[in-house]
Specification:
This protein has 147 residues and is an alpha/beta fold. Helix content is 39%, strand content 13%. The chain has a 4-stranded parallel sheet with strand order 2-1-3-4. α1 packs across α5 and α2 packs across α5. It is globular.
């Protein structure tokens, strides 16, 4: 596996965190994997990650401030080896856009017993972002260990 795309709804909370966590692990372990993130909606194109995601990333020693929201496209993103959905709805939406089912997985399938990673806005506080961070970090570590 040489490339992974993380996908959530808006590409401002969960998928940028997954990309940032993966970048840090890849850098520390000197892996040759390209990572990116995108959203299934076009609601936050060119916006930075939300404040909660940026704050939790900084708390854990890295920055995602350079990332910008973008919309998933089967034309631009089909070259990724693996497309990782953060929840079941994202998974279904990715498939409905025409991506190869053999390339699409849920992050929950990697060390999270199939669980969906909830949108941290459901919690509305930093504890929620911290809980989501912990799930994503566990899933990304498990995913990258399989590479």
């Amino acid at each position: 596996m040489q490339s992974i795309l993380f996908v959530c709804l808006g590409n401002i909370c969960r998928s940028p965190l997954a990309e940032g966590i993966a970048r840090e692990i890849i850098k520390k372990e000197n892996l040759a994997i390209v990572v990116d993130s995108a959203g299934t909606s076009g609601w936050h194109i060119d916006e930075p990650p939300c404040e909660g995601s940026r704050m939790v990333a900084k708390k854990h020693g890295f920055s995602i401030d350079d990332l910008r929201g973008r919309r998933l496209s089967v034309y631009a993103d089909d070259s990724f080896d693996l497309i990782i959905a953060l929840d079941s709805k994202n998974y279904r939406d990715i498939l409905s856009l025409g991506f190869d089912k053999n390339k699409v997985r849920k992050l929950g399938d990697y060390g999270l017993d199939g669980a969906d990673v909830p949108d941290p806005y459901t919690y509305r506080d930093m504890e929620g972002f911290e809980a989501v961070y912990a799930m994503i970090e566990r899933g990304v570590r498990h995913l990258l260990s399989k590479s």
